[in-house]
Amino acid sequence: MKHTKLLLVVLSTLGVSLPVAAADLLETYHAAQGQDSVFAAARAVHQAGQEKLTQGRSLMLPSVNLTANSTYNNTDTQYSNVPAPLTPQLLRQGTSTYMNNGVAVTLVQPLFRQNNWLVYTESELQVAQADAQFKNAEQDLIVRVAQAYFDVLTAQDGVSLSEAQKIAISEQLAQAKRNFEVGSATITDTHEAQARYDLILAQEIAAQSNLEIKRRTLQQLTNTMPSKFQPLGNGFKLEAPQPADVEKWVEQAQQGNLQLAIAQANAELAEQEVARNRGGHYPTLDLVASVGKSTITPVGSGTFANSTNTALNTDATSTTVGVQLNVPLFQGGATQSKWREAEANRDRAKDELESARRNVDLQTRQAYLGVVNGIAQVNALQQALTSSESLLEASKLGQEVGVRTNLDVLNAQQQLFSTRRDLYQAEYNYLISRLRLRAASGTLAEDELTLVNQALY
Question: Which residues contact 375 (CB under 8 A, 6 or more apart)?
Answer without folding.
Answer: 238, 240, 430
